[in-house]
Amino acid sequence: MKLRVARHTDDLEKIKTFYTDVLGFEILGSFENHDNYHGIFIGKPNLNWHFEFTKSDKKANHFSDEDDVLVLYPETISEYKKLINNTIKNNISSITSINPYWDTNGKMFCDPDGFRIIISDLKAT
């Protein structure tokens, strides 16, 4: 099975920069003006999942709460440290998780659309 997580955004460039420059994902593909939608596919090559972000004339209308999170598990401590350093270098502040488990086992940040992302240090030991 393959997985695509798709989300609409009002600022495709900010999302692209955040997920590629800060989190280290790659642009896997893109499309322009497909029924008035523009989009990018972001992930890592040769994996069975990726993110799709789209933009159109319709404004994004996001709803999430403090427990809706995307959790990333770096494979090594050096990868974990690199991601944390990228957030610091890009002036992205960590935020406190409502679930204390994540404050003990990683760092939480918001992407440009306000969605919470946790960079976990569990696998990076």
TrEMBL record:
Top-level lineage group: Bacteria
InterPro entries according to UniProt: Glyas_Bleomycin-R_OHBP_Dase, VOC_core, YycE-like_C, YycE-like_N
Molecular function terms from GO: dioxygenase activity
Domain VOC positions: 1-122
Keyword Oxidoreductase among UniProt keywords: yes
Keyword list, A-Z: Dioxygenase, Oxidoreductase
Record's protein name: Glyoxalase/Bleomycin resistance protein/Dioxygenase superfamily protein
